[in-house]
Amino acid sequence: MKRFFEIVFCLIIIFILSPLILLIALSIKLDTKGSTILLSKRVGVNNSIFTMPKFRTMLVNTEIVETNKLKNANARITKVGKILRKYSLDELPQLFSVIQGKMTLVGPRPALTSQNELLEKRQKLGIHRIKPGITGYAQIKGRDMISLDKKIDLEYKYLKNRNLFFDLKIIFKTIILIFNQKGILH
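Below the sequence we write its predicted structure tokens.
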């Protein structure tokens, strides 16, 4: 039932936001050279590797690492990228990953393949057994501003307490946080 709901929800959102999605793609193309979409290898359910799309917010050839580990990250973010990141619009292409079944709307954020400590802790607690999400419990509780241990603790709480009501609460709080722009470092 959840899968059906997510597919229908994503299709409706993509349809409603299609003019915005096209405007974003055009803006990225006019702002900088290179692709409008960044494809990065991420760790999915049961540690499977998948390719996750995002709107490109950084200059071409920027190393794909955690933003907080990138040297001089603010200088690498494009003009359009600053706006996209501010409102989390760079995440919109992930709706297609939800439709494909690689992601879900709510779950732990998909880790980069280089985030070894995060991946090990998720494996130890069984968090790796659930699909990664566009948003998650850790995102509404601090996003970039929380420690790795706090993030893992929140993801574990989500694993143990996940249900439709909890997911809807996380989606609602995510929307509020996007407009408040809390917990975003870059």
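The first strand starts at residue 37 and ends at 43.
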